[in-house]
Amino acid sequence: MNSICFLYHSITFRGGFCMNQFTYCVPTNVIFGAGTVSQVGQAVAQCGGTHVLVLYGGGSVLRNGTLDKVTASLEAAKLRYDVEGGVQPNPRLALAQKLTDKYQTSGIDFLLAVGGGSVLDTAKAMAMGLYGGSPIWDYFDRTRSVTGELPVGSVLTIAAAGSETSDSAVLTNEEIHVKRGCSTPHNRPRFAIMDPELTYSLPPYQTACGVTDIMMHTLERYFAKDAGQNQMTDGIAEALLRNVMENGLIAMNEPENYQARSEIMWSGSLSHNDLTGLGRDKDFAVHQLGHQLSAVYDLAHGASLSAMWPHWARYVCHNDMARFANLGRKVLGLRCDDDETCVLSTIRGFMDYWHTLGMPVCLGDCIGVQNEATLKSLAKGCSYQGTRTIGAFVKLDQDDMLEIYRMANI
């Protein structure tokens, strides 16, 4: 797929709405379909890579032969490569920094992530450190700006994070129990090899977490302070949600259903490359609330999101009942006469769907009911000791965060 770069100015819609200005550029070359892993060597060479560091997570890519296919393709393209594994879910700063230090003077000029979002985020973080030569965490705690990074490519094995085409990376600093993101155009991978067959062997829970993550990347953009000002963006977001929810259920029951896996994989990329939020702000309050849970309890990212979204929704829905009702009508097919009834049914509908996938919808489902002191500690951590607010749909301070954690504590 060729680079897609558009610059839009204000466009007036009927009813007096006005789309916000935005710049949209997704330069990642997407190579999609069965067997495309064989093209990875050629893709790296086309990007100018000569010495590749291949990163992966656990042993699944070894057991299913994916890593062998990757290295065979690199060898066929006559490329040098080193291989490092051990990336964990909720990727750790310590490993990323250790590998950055190890390869700082190695001549590595390309990073290849073979895995899902955690491997990709680790590669992106290393790419910053290898280029800038500074401690990686400096970029995540905003004490230093990203001015460039080594090129990154991916062979996607999990449809979830959308990191294969996004500008974001997330790392967990395990020493201080903080999980933070860093977004920059430099983070966009040069290419993404997307073979749905590589996701066949995923355990059901990982498939469910992936579907949830894809949904939340879209929902976090659907709810914004200027939501409803871009009908096209709304339509894309609503269609994506319907699509991934339908095919998520199919994939859970038929893990080797190529069509369902294809739909989920492509939805994952589109959900987080900003397409579903063009023309408006994005919220991402639920991500921040969930990040704090993951940082403290090492909870799977998707699980942290499904556990928090219903309670965030109940807390903020009165600010725009029509928006929540519209979501229920367009995505869940609800037929409610009044918005208030529709809002409650919408929140319940998403909870029921996540329950069907086996995902948690409250703290009791995943980390257990917590005491008040723990909830206050979570709110304090999420608010950076009371120094920041989160969200755009509704700005939330530390007291708001605490109340949402309390509502989720069932």
Structural class estimated from helices and strands: alpha/beta
The biggest beta sheet reads: 6 strands, parallel
Enumerate how many helices there are, as a single number: 16
Uncertain segments are: 1-16
Rounded mean pLDDT score: 93
What is the share of helical residues? 40-55%
Estimated radius of gyration: 21 Å
> Termini, distance in Å?
46 Å
Strand order of the largest sheet: 3-10-7-6-4-5
Key words describing this protein structure:
10 strands; two-stranded antiparallel ribbon; 410 residues; alpha/beta; disordered N terminus
Give me the secondary-structure topology:
Blueprint (H helix, E strand, L loop, with lengths): L3 E5 L13 E5 L2 E4 L7 H7 L4 E6 L3 H4 L2 H11 L3 E5 L8 H11 L6 E6 L1 H16 L4 H4 L11 E5 L11 E6 L4 E6 L7 E4 L9 H19 L8 H23 L4 H14 L13 H13 L3 H16 L4 H12 L6 H19 L5 H4 L5 H11 L15 H11 L2
Parallel strand pairs: 3-10, 4-5, 4-6, 6-7, 7-10
Antiparallel strand pairs: 1-2, 8-9
